[in-house]
Amino acid sequence: MKIGLYFGTFNPIHVGHLIIANHMVEFCDLDKIWVVITPHNPFKKKKTLLDNHHRYQLVQRVLEDYPKLEASTIEFELPQPNYTVDTLAYLQEKYPQQEFALIMGEDNLKSLHKWKNHEVIMDHHEIYVYPRVSEGAIEHRFKDHPKVKYVKAPIIEISATAIRNAIREGKNVKPLLTEEAWNYIDEMNFYK
Question: Which CATH number fits the domain that encloses residue 115?
Answer without folding.
Answer: 3.40.50.620
